[in-house]
Design a protein that fits this description.
The protein is mainly alpha-helical. The chain has a two-stranded antiparallel ribbon with strand order 1-2. It contains 6 helices and 2 strands; from the N terminus they run ααααββαα.
């Protein structure tokens, strides 16, 4: 795999990561992507959909669709903001909290497996570099960097 281009490697990691997460969480009838939303809400109860989209760097429409699915699965509740009636705050149900704990534990095991063989400094550097790549991807998506 060392001869392939950079974008292919990122795509490979993403695709296989989704498969692994989905397999690990299959019995919960939830995708790894959905757990990502739940963990974000778990870390910041009362976050709005717009804030969630911005923090996760995901399109607002995609977040709205995901929240609709999570409400159908009885994993989140929405409460209208006292300050601005147009804004709905997101909260987890009790079942979702249990899923978050399990998802966070799996995430730690996954990260340990992905960084196996790297020193702590190398793992930190990888995280820093991936952050830069993610920033660049966002800038490309938003039209701030031309390709």
């Amino acid at each position: 795999m060392s001869g392939e281009n950079f974008a292919w490697k990122i795509s490979f990691i993403y695709r296989h990561g989704r498969v692994i997460y989905d397999r690990a969480l299959k019995d919960l009838e939830i995708s790894g992507h959905q757990v990502g939303y739940l963990i974000s809400i778990y870390k910041e109860p009362g976050i709005s959909q717009e804030e969630l989209a911005r923090k996760m760097r995901i399109d607002k429409g995609a977040v709205a669709k995901a929240m609709k699915e999570l409400r159908k699965k009885d994993l989140i509740n929405r409460k209208q903001s006292r300050d601005d009636k147009r804004i709905y705050r997101l909260f987890l149900t009790e079942r979702a909290v249990d899923i978050c704990v399990r998802g966070a534990e799996f995430e730690k095991r996954m990260e340990a497996a992905l960084t196996k063989g790297l020193t702590a400094d190398e793992a930190d550097e990888l995280g820093r570099l991936l952050g830069k790549v993610a920033d660049n991807m966002e800038n490309i998506t938003e039209g701030r960097i031309d390709i």
